[in-house]
Amino acid sequence: MVRSSIALPEGPLLKDNIGRAQWAEEAGYDDLWLADGTGPDGLTLAAVLACHTKRIRIGMAVTPAFTRPPALLAATISVLDQVLPNRCLWVIDRDRVLEFHGDSNIDACDQD
After folding, report:
1. Computed from CA positions of residues 11, 13, 39, 27, in that sequence, does the dihedral angle turn out positive or negative?
2. Hey, which residues does 32 pair with through a beta bridge?
3. Phi and psi angles of residue 94, each rounded to the nearest 5 degrees, phi first
4. Model confidence over 16-46: pLDDT tens digits?
């Protein structure tokens, strides 16, 4: 199965980001990718967009692990995984090695 993805150009206003995410979902995209560190907090934005979309998977590309203590990052991922069940994608950068988490169709670190 081929999936279609789009990178969301994040802006400072949540209403604009919500509108772009809803447009992407209505346009038939399967995955929406956010960057962490280029606009509003990407992890918080993912939670907000989860509340305003129904189907599209929301991914974080790339979350730098060195900017968040491991316990905080784990707690955030846990909450987002509950808000976005089977719709949450992660790319975590640790010393330039990428790890994938979630329902990404990539054989990686998911131990479920």
Report:
1. negative
2. 6, 58
3. -125, 105
4. 999 999 999 999 999 999 887 767 788 889 9
Q: Which pTM was predicted?
A: 0.73
SS3 43: helix
- Per-residue model confidence as pLDDT tens digits over 63-94: 777 777 888 888 988 888 888 888 888 777 66
The token pair at 84 is 């976005």
H/E segment holding residue 97? strand 97-102
Nearest to 105 by CA among 59, 44, 55: 59
82: helix, strand or coil? helix
**CA dihedral sign of residues 27, 29, 35, 36:** positive
φ, ψ for residue 24 (rounded to 5)?
-60, -40
Instruction: Give the integer Cα–Cα distance in Å for 95 and 87.
Output: 26
Question: In the numeric block, which tokens belong to residue 16?
Answer: 């604009």
Tell me the HSE value of 38 on the side-chain side, using a 13 A CA sphere: 14
